[in-house]
C-alpha cells in the first residue's frame, strides 16, 4: 500500500524547502494571508473549472464572485462558531494586521475580515491541514448559501 504524501510535502521536498522551514505559527499574519489567498483562489478555480469547460473569460468572472473581500468576509463570519481556539487566534492576528494596501470595491471591515480568513487558510496550509481547509470552506459555503 502506497503511503500518502501531501502536496505541501512534495513541494518542500522538490524545491529543498524542508530544512530550516519555519513553523506556520511563526510566520507574520500577512505572510500567511499571502499564501492563504493563493490556496483559496486555487480551490475556487478548481471547482469552477470542474463544473464545466467554458471560455476563460467566463471562468474568471465566475471565480471573481467568490474570490473577493465581501464573499470571504461573509464566509468567515459564518464560520465563527466552527473555528477552534487556535484557528480563531490565527484569524484575529490576520484580521488585525496592519496592511498597507486596500482592496478595490471593499469596505475596510470586509477587507480586514478577508485578510484574517486568508491568514487562517495560509496557516492551515503551511501546517499541512488541507482537509481542514476544505471542511471549513464547505461549512462556510453551506451556512452562507453561496454555491460555487
What does this structure look like?
It is a single chain. The protein has 7 helices and no strands. With 148 residues, the protein is mainly α. It has a single domain (24-144), classed as Ribonuclease iii, N-terminal Endonuclease Domain, Chain A, CATH 1.10.1520.10.
What is the end-to-end distance?
34 Å
CATH level 3 topology: Ribonuclease iii, N-terminal Endonuclease Domain, Chain A
Helicity, as a percent range: 55-70%
Regions with little confidence, pLDDT below 50 for 5+ residues: none
The biggest beta sheet, please?
A: none
Secondary structural class: mainly alpha
| H/I helix tally | 7
Overall geometry comes to: globular
What integer value in Å does the Rg equal?
16 Å
Kindly report the name of the CATH homologous superfamily.
Ribonuclease III domain
* Overall pLDDT level: 91
Series of H and E elements: HHHHHHH
Q: Could you tell me the number of beta strands?
A: 0
Strand content: under 5%
CATH architecture field: Orthogonal Bundle
CATH class membership? Mainly Alpha
Total domain count: 1
Keywords:
Ribonuclease iii, N-terminal Endonuclease Domain, Chain A; 148 residues
